[in-house]
Amino acid sequence: MPRVAADADPGTAGIVAHLAAFAGAMRRHGIRVGLSDEIDAAEALGRLDLLDRAEVRCGLRIALKVPHDAWAEFTRLFEQHWGGSSAHDVPIAPPTYASALRGPLQWRWDGTRVRLELPEPEPQPGADPGYSANPMLRQKPFDEASAHEIAAIEKLLQRLALRLAARRSRRLVPTPGHGIVDLRRSFRHALASQGDFLRLARRTRPRDQPRVVLLYDTSGSMDPHVRFHLSFAFALRRVIRSVEIFAFNTSLTRVTRAVDPGRLTRSVARLAATVPDWSGGTRIGACLADFVATHPHLIGRETTIVVVSDGLDLGDTAQLVAAMRALRERARTIVWLNPLLADSRYEPSAAGMRSALPFVDYFGPAHNVESIERLLRFLR
Fold first, then answer.
1. What is the CA 358 to chain-centroid distance, rounded?
2. What three-state secondary structure class fits 115?
3. Do residues 248 and 281 both lie within one domain?
């Protein structure tokens, strides 16, 4: 098996050790596997889409040079050792997608395919307990967070953005680099060279780049939540370029490029000073109508519109209905997150909220990290 340097990433060492155990199991069951085959397999794993279990199985079968009459036994052993009945959890570390992502991911079999999950960080002795991603912190209401918990919660929200950015699409697209061999295109290319396969055409799964427009209510009633939502929004914008961010209260302001994610506290303070009527009243209908009229190019069949507001509107509800209808006709999905939904006694009886709901695909809470986690499936 390839030698692993003493300072190698623990995730890399973990998958190399697991590959060695898998090769040993194959030898015990009569399948010949040499040291050079294991080296080839280790290199192949660095070039495969680790999220695609079928691709990993096929790649290992080729790299380990498994004879045809041993395919059935190889498949059985692969199911056992790579997430099947044995349900092994193997720490691996594929290339990270942003410098903020730390620590090895976990290879887990969920019953359908192999998936990568970011483990919760181990609390360090003497470290601030607020930085531990425990369930209590994820469920902590934003408006009840203490000073040391605020930074920890923002860190969790930034990790949510990284998780979304790391997700691969199910579709396959042509790639000049490594990927799955595209036989049809490879044969077409061979026709130009009298049937010689000078190069193989390949396809890969690109990273998802969801088109998202986030509209945040910055009126006085939303003050306890705005900072956290902006933290998530600008972390998302940092890793996914097709994200647009707006603040609204009595008027609409585009703030996509107005915040430095590394200096959020200072940026939010600057926004509060520059965005008109920050912490003032709310005219949701007028602001959404302004968005539809001024930024039609941001609304399309691939766009998810996310409105974060308590729905307490001082404006004309007829204007709100017209704006929501226009969004419904042109956008892919409309999500409305309302912090007041955290209270089980809450009913959307306010005129603005009641008028908007018929056009909303998902109506959910927005008061803690868990509520933002639920949003990810709609952004995907």
1. 28
2. strand
3. yes
Alpha-carbon span 268 to 177, nearest angstrom? 41
Mean predicted confidence (pLDDT) in 33-54: 78
Residue pLDDT, tens place only, 162-177: 766 555 556 666 777 6
Q: How far apart are CA 232 and CA 351, in angstroms?
A: 29
Regarding whether 374 and 290 lie in a shared domain, the answer is yes
- The strand ranges marked E within the chain are 90-92, 105-109, 114-117, 173-175, 180-181, 202-204, 211-217, 243-248, 252-254, 303-308, 333-337, 362-364
For residues 124 and 354, what is the distance between their CA atoms, to the nearest angstrom?
47
CA–CA gap between residue 19 and residue 51 (Å, rounded): 17
pLDDT tens digits along 299-332: 998 899 999 999 888 788 899 999 999 999 999 9
Nearest to 14 by CA among 120, 103, 124: 103
Mean pLDDT is lowest, of 7-11, 98-102, 173-177, 329-333, for 98-102
Where in the sequence is the domain holding 177, given as residue range(s)? 173-204
CB 229 within 8 A of CB 309: no
